[in-house]
Write a structure and sequence with these properties.
The termini are far apart. A three-stranded antiparallel β-sheet has the order 1-3-2, with helices on one face. The protein has one domain: Alpha-Beta Plaits (2-Layer Sandwich), CATH 3.30.70. The protein is built from four helices and three strands. It is about 35% helix and about 25% strand. The chain is of the alpha+beta class and about 120 residues long.
C-alpha cells in the first residue's frame, strides 16, 4: 500500500466554503464520495485542519495500491462527481487535478504501523 500526505494553506476567505464542502462529503454526498474513492482505487482518505499561526493548513492523507495511477484516473475522469470534486479543489485551493504538477511527491520520512496482536489464551 502506498501512502501520501500533503499540506496546503487554506486561504482565510475560503475557510467557510471548505468547511461546507467537507461537511457535504461527510453527510449528504458521502455515498458518492465513497464511490469516487473506489473509482480511483483509493482505500483511505483523511482530512485535517491544522491552525498554524495566522493561517490554517489543510492536511490530506491518502492510501492506495498505486497513487500515481489514482492521480492519473482523477486527472482524466469525466464523471460528474469527480469533476465537481476537482472544481471545488481548484476554487478553494487553486489546485488543478486535471493538470497535475510534474514536481516530486512528498518524501516519506517515517512509517510505522503496529499490527494488532491476537491472543489465543483463554482462562
Amino acid at each position: 500500500m502506498q501512502t501520501i500526505a500533503f499540506a496546503v494553506s487554506l486561504p482565510s476567505d475560503k475557510k467557510e466554503r471548505f468547511l461546507s464542502f467537507a461537511k457535504l462529503l461527510r453527510t449528504d454526498r458521502n455515498a458518492e464520495f465513497r464511490q469516487f474513492l473506489e473509482r480511483l482505487d483509493t482505500v483511505e482518505e483523511n482530512w485535517f485542519l491544522q491552525p498554524c499561526g495566522e493561517t490554517d493548513l489543510f492536511i490530506c492523507y491518502l492510501a492506495a495500491s498505486d497513487l500515481q495511477a489514482a492521480f492519473g484516473k482523477l486527472a482524466s475522469s469525466q464523471h460528474p462527481f469527480d469533476k465537481w470534486i476537482k472544481q471545488e479543489n481548484k476554487e478553494i485551493f487553486g489546485m488543478d487535478f486535471e493538470s497535475p504538477s510534474d514536481g516530486p511527491m512528498p518524501e516519506v520520512l517515517l512509517q510505522c504501523k503496529l499490527e494488532p496482536t491476537q491472543s489465543n489464551t483463554w482462562k
